Amino acid sequence: MIITMIVSIYICIILHELAHLLTAKLVKCNVEVFSIGFGKELISFKFKGTKYRFALLPLGGYNKLEHELDYCKTKTALPNLSYSKKLLVLLSGCFINIITGLVAYYFGIKLVNENLFYFGTISTILGITNLLPIPALDGSYPILFLLEKIIPKKYSLQLIRWLVGWGFIILTILNIACIPWLIMNWRKL
């Protein structure tokens, strides 16, 4: 059960980050780094301007988009895409998790396959949770990028960067705070 959960989360991370990568490339947004995991780099290679890397701590992943939250004039930078293209890039990971999760959940029930059922449940929950409008989660960006409509872009991007930074710190603290509970209750999961 615990192996199924770890493998399911890892697959969800890969699908999520691949969706961001592919939609960014589709809308002509440069992706500087595609990473599965954090911390020390285990393996990497460069292909068509993007560095692909796998890192030591497989607790998540990320795509570093060109000038992600920086003010610039580059057409292929995230801040200079249209609002709809930004949303497509930033929400695609959540959508792929929800879609693959619901499909796997459905087939897990139909085929009475416990592994598919667990993967479907985990993927759907991760996708929906990441849609929450908490800075640092993908669901915050539709709201945060609306700031550009009322505050000049140069200043709204600084504010977004500040909010996302604090959101990431708070989410990290909450995740670390959950570790003792997970250790004590992992057999019940």
What labels describe this entry?
single chain, 189 residues, alpha+beta, two-stranded antiparallel ribbon, 2 strands
State the helical fraction.
55-70%
Number of helices: 6
**Taking strands numbered 1, 2, ... along the chain, how are they ordered across the largest sheet?**
1-2
Structural class by sheet pairing and helices: alpha+beta
Give the SSE string. HEEHHHHH
Shape: globular
The Rg value, from CA coordinates, equals: 18 Å
Main pleated-sheet profile: 2 strands, antiparallel
Domains (count): 1
Mean pLDDT: 92
Question: Quick one: how many beta strands?
Answer: 2
Termini separation comes to 8 Å
| Low-pLDDT ranges | none
Question: Which strand-content bin applies to the residues?
Answer: 15-25%
Description of the molecule:
The structure is a single chain. Helices cover 59% and strands 17% of the residues. The chain is an alpha+beta fold and 189 residues long. It has one domain. The chain has a two-stranded antiparallel sheet. A hairpin with a 2-residue loop joins strand 1 and strand 2. Helix 1 (2-26) packs antiparallel against helix 2 and helix 2 packs antiparallel against helix 3. The radius of gyration is 18 Å and the shape is globular. The termini are close together. 25% of the residues are buried. The model has no long low-confidence stretch (mean pLDDT 92).
